[in-house]
Specification:
By secondary structure, the protein is mostly helical. The protein is built from 13 helices and two strands. It has helices spanning about 1-25, 35-45, 45-60, 65-90, 95-125, 130-165, 170-205, 210-240, 250-260, 265-280, 285-300, 320-340, 370, and strands spanning about 345, 355. It has a two-stranded antiparallel ribbon with strand order 1-2. The longest helix has about 40 residues, at about 170-205. The radius of gyration is 24 Å and the shape is globular.
Length: about 375
């Protein structure tokens, strides 16, 4: 936990200092940059608490105590929702209030879980002073999992960068989908936590024969949980998005993306389960290598870090562009029936503007015309 607190402090300082360049690299525009910057800087102090909570949760899992982290997470989620609302609306802090509320919640959770572990350590006569050997051993054991987590986060940032390149509306829809996907991941991760504790206990006792039937049982539960979560997301998608916004374009985009993500929940349940089993079995190096390979296949580092623009004159290229095109097609398909009703003034070849349907969308299709045919007329959507 000492190591987690130190890493959290370092991460908080780096995030606060480099928040603006990071957001610029991700393609934040003038409309989103102030809000994103306010959120990151307000939530940065909470990284210390978040790192401590992760370390404390792992410690309690190793002690076969999964109830205490559940209590902390449930109470923290409820407090966070109330704190965010109070700071954002009655106190008028806006998006920065949400970041501050999250930081306060993470700090309080760290204090609570730290108090539980301190009591247990004193009861067992374990010293609470940090030692060089202890910190070094924890760093060596945790390094592979740190690499795994960083690789996963970079892949998520690559997706965010591609979405930002499409439009502000697509970014808003992505935030809704990401929130619901994260909620579903926590639901599925509950089984992975139990799998991690059971696998660690089985490995520690040396009962290798018990591992195979345990994996079969847990695998069935993981897939079944994934199916249940996927069905729930697909059924509620047209209505649950309206909790977050009243913008019909954002609702349409988010609804389609949530339904698509619902089909992958059974796979997610199985993968989350195996992740927990491998962590419990001490296979951190395998997870680190697998995460890096996944990142290389999914999102190689782009050569051009400038924000992408979906224009006729500058066709996109590269892996990041392929993600942007894929998300852009989904974005265009979901909003075509809304945007096609709004005639836009588009200049003709002689520069005169007149109201007529925008050439980006062809009647009856959700695919932007500029992606179906190369434009030689130089028009820019």
């Amino acid at each position: 936990m000492w190591l987690a607190g130190g890493l959290g402090l370092l991460a908080a300082i780096l995030l606060a200092v480099f928040a603006s360049p990071l957001l610029t690299w991700l393609g934040a525009n003038e409309a989103t940059l102030p809000h994103a910057l306010g959120y990151l800087r307000a939530s940065a102090p909470g990284l210390v608490g978040m790192f401590v909570v992760l370390a404390a949760t792992g410690t309690l899992r190793g002690l076969q105590d999964t109830r205490t982290p559940l209590v902390a997470a449930s109470a923290g989620a409820a407090f966070n929702a109330v704190a965010n609302w109070v700071l954002m609306y009655p106190l008028g802090m806006g998006v920065a209030g949400s970041g501050l509320g999250t930081a306060i919640t993470q700090t309080l959770m760290a204090v609570f879980l730290g108090w539980i572990i301190v009591r247990a350590a004193r009861r067992e006569g374990v010293s609470l002073r940090p030692s060089t050997s202890g910190l070094f051993g924890a760093a060596v054991e945790g390094a592979p999992l740190l690499v795994r987590t960083l690789a996963l986060r970079v892949a998520l940032l690559a997706t965010l960068s591609a979405v930002t390149a499409i439009s502000t509306q697509a970014l808003a829809a992505h935030q809704i989908v990401w929130t619901l996907w994260t909620f579903a991941a926590y639901v599925l991760d509950a089984l992975a936590i139990a799998a991690q504790a059971l696998a660690g206990f089985t490995t520690g006792t040396g009962e290798r024969g018990a591992m195979r039937p345990l994996l079969r049982t847990l695998s069935r539960w993981g897939v079944c949980f994934g199916v249940a979560v996927g069905v729930a997301l697909a059924i509620t998608a047209p209505w649950i998005t309206r909790i977050f916004t009243t913008d019909q374009g954002v609702i349409d985009d988010a609804t389609v993306a949530i339904i698509v993500s619902a089909f992958f929940q059974p796979i997610a349940g199985y993968v989350f389960l195996l992740d927990g089993v491998l962590i419990g079995a001490g296979r951190g190096r395998y997870l680190a290598v697998a995460a890096i390979l996944n990142l290389v296949v999914y999102a190689p580092p782009p050569v051009d870090h400038r924000p992408l623009r979906l224009t006729h004159r500058a066709p996109l290229a590269g892996p990041r562009a392929r993600v942007a095109r894929l998300l852009g097609r989904l974005h265009g398909h979901a909003g075509t029936h809304q945007r096609a009703r709004r005639p836009l003034a588009v200049a003709d070849r002689r520069g005169r503007g007149r109201p007529r349907p925008h050439p980006r969308f062809r009647a009856g299709f959700g695919v932007p015309a500029g992606w179906a045919h190369a434009s030689s007329r130089g028009r820019q959507s």
